């Protein structure tokens, strides 16, 4: 039976997406290790389907300012993926790539923006590639775009992309472990409901 809304997903379907997330984030850790020149580990991520307000609160609140790296998905799956990165993680990225730190998002230059976008691109592409390989579904991510804003505003973008088909969103949580320090990173996956049904069918868990 086809899902009509995200919140109709059962535990088996969410567990399958969690396994995909584990493979995708593991691939991302390997790519980030090469980019940063140090060991990066990302433990088993949690995958949750949360109501919009609950998702934002879990991420630290509506007014928490973050960098959002957004990529649209096309091919056999339509929707958006969003990577949320906060200042501590950005400083760690800049320290390893450029040997510098910043005290606020307004200090980011065009070159530093590019470094942050590349990390978001690695996170999104690794997850999308894992999803594509496991399901046999063609998924094409667009060139990612960077936005700096309050999280409540940033997360509104994938919610609108869902076409108001649901007040829920899929949150893929995890943390980088870099040099013994834990830094939160979050991915939000927002396929439209038709795409979600097709994806679950190709994974063999369509209910």
Would you write up a description of this structure?
By secondary structure, this protein is of the alpha+beta class. The chain contains 6 helices and 8 strands. It has helices spanning 11-36, 52-58, 87-98, 110-135, 151-161, 193-202; strands spanning 40-41, 46-51, 65-75, 79-85, 139-141, 145-150, 168-178, 181-191. Strands 1, 2, 3, 4, 5, 6, 7 and 8 form an 8-stranded antiparallel β-sheet that branches. It is globular and about 55 Å long. The relative contact order is 0.25.
Features:
6 helices, globular, single chain, alpha+beta, eight-stranded antiparallel β-sheet, 207 residues, 28% strand
Proportion of β residues?
25-35%
- The ordered H/E elements are HEEHEEHHEEHEEH
User: Biggest β-sheet: count, sense, barrel?
Assistant: 8 strands, antiparallel
- Beta strands, count: 8
Helix share of residues?
40-55%
Instruction: Say what oligomer this is.
Output: single chain
Q: Tally the helices.
A: 6
User: What Rg do the Cα atoms give?
Assistant: 16 Å
End-to-end CA span: 6 Å
What class would the helix/strand composition place it in?
alpha+beta
General form:
globular
Low-confidence spans: none
Average pLDDT reading: 84
Write the layout of secondary structure elements.
Layout: H1 11-36, E1 40-41, E2 46-51, H2 52-58, E3 65-75, E4 79-85, H3 87-98, H4 110-135, E5 139-141, E6 145-150, H5 151-161, E7 168-178, E8 181-191, H6 193-202
Antiparallel strand pairs: 1-7, 2-7, 3-4, 3-5, 3-6, 4-8, 7-8
Task: Give a brief outline of the structure.
This protein is an alpha+beta fold and 207 residues long. The chain has helices at residues 11-36, 52-58, 87-98, 110-135, 151-161, 193-202, and strands spanning 40-41, 46-51, 65-75, 79-85, 139-141, 145-150, 168-178, 181-191.
């Amino acid at each position: 039976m086809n899902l009509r809304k995200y919140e109709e997903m059962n535990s088996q379907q969410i567990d399958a997406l969690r396994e995909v997330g584990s493979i995708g984030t593991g691939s991302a850790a390997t790519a980030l290790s090469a980019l940063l020149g140090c060991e990066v580990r990302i433990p088993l991520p949690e995958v949750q389907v949360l109501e919009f307000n609950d998702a934002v609160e879990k991420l630290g609140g509506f007014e928490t300012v973050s960098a959002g790296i957004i990529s649209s998905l096309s091919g056999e799956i339509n929707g958006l993926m969003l990577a949320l990165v906060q200042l501590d993680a950005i400083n760690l990225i800049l320290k390893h790539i450029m040997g510098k730190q910043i005290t606020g998002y307004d200090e980011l230059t065009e070159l530093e923006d590019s470094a942050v976008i590349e990390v978001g691109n690695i996170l999104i592409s690794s997850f999308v590639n894992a999803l594509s390989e496991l399901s046999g579904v063609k998924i094409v991510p667009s060139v990612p775009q960077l936005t700096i804003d309050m999280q409540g505003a940033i997360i509104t973008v994938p919610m609108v992309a869902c076409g108001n088909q649901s007040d829920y969103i899929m949150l893929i949580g995890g943390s980088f472990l870099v040099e013994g320090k834990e830094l939160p990173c979050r991915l939000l996956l927002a396929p439209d409901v038709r795409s979600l049904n097709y994806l679950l069918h190709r994974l063999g868990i369509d209910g």
